[in-house]
Amino acid sequence: MSQAFDAAEQQSRLEERATRALALAAELGADACEVGASVDQGIGVGVRLGETESVELSRDQGIAVTVYVGQRKGNASSSDASDASLRAVVEKAIAIAQHTGEDPAAGLAEAALMATELPDLDLHHPWALETDDALALALRCEQAGRERAGITNSEGASLSSTEAVTVYANSHGFLGSRRGTRHSLSCLLIAGSGEGMQRDHDFTTARRASNLASPEQVGISAAERTLRRLDARRPRTGRFPVLFAPEMARGLVGNLLNSIAGGALYRESSFLCDQLGTTLFPEWFSLGERPRERGGMASSAFDSDGVATRDNVFIDQGRLASYMLSAYSARRLGLQTTGNAGGARNVRIQAPTTELAALMRQMGTGVMVTEMMGQGLNPVTGDYSRGAAGFWIENGEISHPVEEFTVAGNLREMFAALQGVGDDIDRRGSVHTGSWLVDGMTLAGQ
Description:
Elements: H1 7-27, E1 32-48, E2 51-69, E3 72-78, H2 83-97, H3 131-146, E4 151-170, E5 175-191, E6 198-206, H4 215-227, E7 238-244, H5 246-259, H6 262-266, E8 286-289, E9 312-316, E10 319-320, H7 327-333, E11 347-350, E12 353-354, H8 356-363, E13 366-373, E14 383-394, E15 397-410, H9 411-416, E16 418-422, E17 431-432, E18 436-444
Parallel strand pairs: 7-13, 11-17, 12-16
Antiparallel strand pairs: 1-2, 1-4, 2-3, 4-5, 5-6, 7-18, 8-9, 8-11, 9-10, 13-14, 14-15, 15-18, 16-18
Helix pairs in contact: 1-2, 3-4
């Protein structure tokens, strides 16, 4: 990159700014304060049809200050790094707090819960990537895909590499920092023409550039995924088993986590309110998080409240064993924080896995969903209905691609009807899962 990024220097600078913000808040009358600061730098390039389409070098920074005056809360933020701006942000946060209503749940997490061990979680692996090299990799990726017979057009390939430093501090004396990197490469291709045109993509992402799939692998995979969607038709309407591909199963995990998050619970906007201990999944299924996993895409030793993270089990042998709570949502619910301010980190499933071909044989006749559209979920009732595309399975084998249909059910019933988890585990994100076979969903097609 054209601009040097010294992560150690940036970390020191952010820690110093956060410490000064805390001192200013105390000086100006705040009873407590917490500060989040970050800086990141990245390169992103895009190519299309063998030509450079975009080159972006980015550098962003910001600081957010939250103050508490009694049980009144105010927050303000800025992207200006000057001393004058820092003071203005603190003053604005205090002014806001003085005009807000009291909230009995407001305040920092308890001091005894702050993280005291901040191990190196192996998250920082900078990539010395020049623009010309980045473009060359993206071009190789797209070319590999376009060379496959049947590919008629391209929406391009893109590569990005980002390095970031984040700091969180509060007036308990806690100060935590993280350095991290994220690199990714993707390609989106088109096959066919007119009404029969189809598109699909593939990608690779990792904290270490050496762990990325090769450009050729990504391009060829994108081409194969696109070509297999040609000649799609609408499936027949009825009640069938549905096999959710790993990318789609990850969405179901997200639906579960959103439903057990403290914010949804205290607002009573979740179908899982007051359901601790209830059986949701088959007994063989467990799900939890490993926030301190080395090299994990979402690893952190502390949450957004400064609370020490820990392994949590949310689903234990089918039962809802724990909610996902921040300090604030825990107070609203009369419970204890689970160290989940900022969400779940490195979600992992513990369940016996089945070879994908065996799962298809088990389902017999039904549909494999590889793409979904829309946001058709009612979080209060769990009712679920989304547009989809994928493949028709007949006698345990892929018969033909399908599109323009809807899959519908209810999350509680879908979770209970989980028949198996595939061994095709997608490890590219923070949620690792294979395909999910769910019995008895409604398909609306022809």
